[in-house]
């Protein structure tokens, strides 16, 4: 394909993409294909002779579209959103055009410098404490996903602790042995409701993982006292907690851990790396009404949210902010001769390869830059507030049907969790409150107060069962897509 053929092909592709967005709401969200649907529709191997773009493009509608789940559909209600926008899409186009690995500043200065500037813009926009800006010891980097960020933070936290503990020892076999011995005793912590990425990161880092309790009585959030109790229990067992994921917007209920309380613990546990995972809800920090959550972050080590989840930036764009970039560089900077150059050696430039696990990196800051400039901070605030208001409307509609539903949490950051009320059974009558039929509003508060333990367990089981049945029926129809949690 030469540039003139590209021009024709690209115009046709853009026409098709614009039509797709114009008609997306009319399509069922879920495809109705069975596992393995695609193989019989494609040849066994690549064509010997190149094909025309017309022929390739026709297969989008014919074989790809029938198997697509339409994440950008307004009827998509599953997991968390994965927003896209036309400015973000244009950023992806240019990034594809300038295709480069850009791991060092010298590999493409614009890649690096735009990323540093855009991350500073984002930090200021969401009012992160100044320590996360690049003008001091901190800064921001764009990575692919929140899980990738958690692995990056966990490994850096592990190595930071080892460096601190063994700083007195000269480089030697003995020091390596000591470090290996330490690693086996290290424990990464996260709320029992933290995303599974913390557990996965601990596995990858070869450390242990412990969950910090976050019960319903604390609104599914980790409190300072629960964290202290877990840390002290680990220490009493001869283990060493070195890392904690604090969550801003947990996956199941959008709970926010007690940042202010947890910040008061940092002087007692100075070697504990605290990372804030705000994968979804972090985007809400563009609105002043949520920015009170940011002040305690000055006491923590790192912060992350996915601009691709709720800030109109096409996948992937995970904004990772670090208070002391040295903590990453001291772990990840390994410079064989082929990666060295006069600019890196001068110390005047940022080489993002030293802040991450992979070497090569995409030009992701372009799409974030386009989005920030196209919408402006006001536009982004309006976008988030509209979703939050729709979330309140949804909550009120559900809460208004107490005969059918019970709200469990929310609305928090546009997320409401609810269950379908089980049909009253004779077993319910065992409780002091007189059974489901007599509960005044069928809310959890009522049944946790009024029921005996057995009746409550039975109620939960029945509620889970009927809720599962209802959402599975909704999903099977394919028009909407919902997710559940237990
Ligand atoms: N953290 C939280 C709170 C999440 O809800 C999710 C996914 O929904 C993740 C992390 C993982 O996100 P990613 O796909 O960016 O790894």
TrEMBL record:
SUPFAM superfamilies: PLP-dependent transferases
GO cellular component: cytoplasm
Family affiliation: Belongs to the group II decarboxylase family.
Protein name, as recorded: Dopa decarboxylase-like protein
Gene Ontology biological process: amino acid metabolic process; carboxylic acid metabolic process
A Gene Ontology molecular function term of the record: pyridoxal phosphate binding
Cofactor: pyridoxal 5'-phosphate
InterPro entries in alphabetical order: Aromatic_deC (IPR010977), PyrdxlP-dep_de-COase (IPR002129), PyrdxlP-dep_Trfase (IPR015424), PyrdxlP-dep_Trfase_major (IPR015421), PyrdxlP-dep_Trfase_small (IPR015422), Pyridoxal-P_BS (IPR021115)
Entry annotated with the keyword Ribonucleoprotein: no
Record PTM N6-(pyridoxal phosphate)lysine, positions in chain: 309
Keywords for the protein's UniProt record, in alphabetical order: Decarboxylase, Lyase, Pyridoxal phosphate
